[in-house]
Design a protein that fits this description.
L-homocysteine binds at residues 435-437, 488, 603. By secondary structure, the protein is α/β, with parallel strands linked by helices. Helices cover 44% and strands 12% of the residues. The chain has 27 helices and 23 strands. The strands form six sheets. It has an eight-stranded parallel beta sheet. A six-stranded parallel beta sheet has the order 13-18-20-21-22-23. The longest helix is centred in the N-terminal third of the chain and has 22 residues, at 34-55. The chain binds glutamine and zinc ion. The site of glutamine has 13 residues, from loops.
Amino acid sequence: MPKVRSSNIGYPRIGEKREWKKSLEQFWAGNISEQDLLESLKSIRLTNIKKQTEAGIDLVPVGDFSFYDQVLDTAVSFGLVPDRFDYNGGKVDVTTYFAIARGTDSAVAAEMTKWYNTNYHYIVPEISTPPTSLVHNRVLELFNEAKEELGTKTKPVIIGPVSFVKLSKNLTGQSEQELVRSFIPLYATLLKELEEADADWVQIEEPFLNGQVSNEDLDLLQEVYAQLDVAAPSLNILLQTYFEAIDDYEAVVNLPVQGLGLDFVHDEGVSLEQVKKFGFPTGKVLAAGIIDGRNIWRADLKEVKDIVDQLSVIVGEGQLILQPSCSLLHVPVTVELETELPELLKEGIAFADEKLQELVALTKVANDEQDEESLEKSSAAVKALNESSSRNNEEVRSVLATISEEIPTRTIDAPERLRIQQEKYQLPLLPTTTIGSFPQTKEVRQQRLKWRKGELNSEDYEKFIRDEIDKWIKIQEELDLDVLVHGEFERTDMVEFFGEKLAGFQFTKFGWVQSYGSRCVKPPIIYGDVAFVKPMTVKETAYAQRQTKRPVKGMLTGPVTIFNWSFPRTDIPEGQVVNQIALALRKEVEELEREEIGVIQVDEPAIREGLPLKPSKTKAYLDQSVGAFRLSTNTVQTQTQIHTHMCYSDFEAIIESIDALDADVISIETSRSHGELISAFEDFTYNKGIGLGVYDIHSPRVPAQEEIDRNISRALSVLDPKLFWINPDCGLKTRKEKETVEALRVMVNAAKEARKQY
Ligand code: GLN
Ligand code: ZN
């Protein structure tokens, strides 16, 4: 038995060129049969396993691959199908599986929400009655498939019962503990069958352990794993955690399992300290997550080797496994395809395949199969990148050094500012506006693509954009909206657009990661000091403003959202990177002010999702985020009205931080939690402008005026009508022109009606 083994927690399912996405979408469009879909997904799945085995990984996962989402896979294995879908027991078929994820004409899809603090979204299981049987041992099937087709003995991976229940909506009326208990016999069957199929290891994931954990949770874990351990005595359970170090090290290492997976990358050396301080139980396996599974930087393998050496002394011979810190689902597949990246950067990054190579190299060195000198190359690449001039922009650093001490504050309080701004703009009571984007029609996308490919010259492209702006300014005036927008026709994605214009960002060609369902995103890489280069939004915004007497809102993506939706550098503190972005945006704000744009919206939809898993870290994150936002926006003139916008999550928990942003006006998406959000404002005196979205933009449906009336009066039962704005939930870029205009017309009518009553 080798001293050290290598393992992987999960591999990206999308394929090198998003073959997975293409197959799914072809199937949904009715262009390929179910048989074709099954075959093409099987081929991707087996290719992934083969790639990992050939790379030299000892424990290759199965069950990480999915048709949509791993949480949904777990739910259907237990026959957990929400009541509104047709289901009569047994293995859930492909049609029903996708119906739960995507909805049908007659049944709404299950809710989707963020997977911990990542940008991956899972399907939230709805448990109305406790499950009674394992209807499909999916991992067993996949384990057998890999064995038969490839001759590989893989490591099945599943989500553990405690985390699974915590991730679900418990509609049973039972307590969380009771519900977890009803899963134990089902998991026991699953494990027993894996044992009979001769599996050695099963990875059971309990990522809730990386957040807030109570004593009851720890007792429950003890109870659950004691029973699972006896259910399949010769199958080894590896209890896997990720994204942070765990707070309850001593309790967790002593659980009745054969191995424990910990994150040694995040949380600044905490896991290593814990192992050194408390030791590690003899006879147990430690799966050490030593390569960052969430970010794309190449590791300095000599430094990592040092951690491996320290662990080897403490963990028993043959009991140490090296692996990524979490599933590689969160990073792109391979750097190989990135033929256009600057050499220095290309050498400095590692996607999934390269991360596996790093693990194999470390394992070989640890087993004396390869000498330590072979790790030198990675250290040199990391050093070269760190020392490059792109990473170190003296000017940015020196400006940052002068301001980072103090967060700017607007000179006058919000109520007085609003009074001064109102004198200037003379807006009616309950002013109406939209969130920024108007429909990105096929034509808009085609013209942009042509221009990007060089088939359309910049002059013609800009003319096209101006025509779109003209058209929509007219529409907005005709609708009688109060604060207009230019429509964001020139933008692809709200982060990419800015990243392409700021210094310090780099874009990949195939660096896709799954965000939800078949939707993949290509996060930019923040590799160097971020700096303003030249105005980014002024041309279109100022043009739009010249076409109308009504105020046109400038539209920027905020520093926290740009940071959270990128792969940020890690060689300097996170706060510094966010502040660099904030300072660059401040310059853009100043440019807009110079062009007489007096209303500027800085969108922060992603502020909530970056909230750390551990409550002990919440304050630092929120302070940093609020600070960055204020750095960009709080030095404006009193007359300049700063708006912000948030969506995608529940905001009750961070309402004080929202207040501290000190934006003059905020618009928040509320269609998913109307009642809850409003009651949050009941106990909180919010003295700034606020618009709670009055209709849901996610569906093409044109809302009835009564619906909007109801939403307005519900909000105004709590909020001051003098501060209330009327706007849709979010941007309208995914909608069609006709439905957009109709819906906005209903909204403006509702506002006019409401004005008579308040
Ligand atoms: N201004 C952006 C838009 O309207 C906001 C998008 C978002 O909140 N996600 O599209
Ligand atoms: Zn939004």
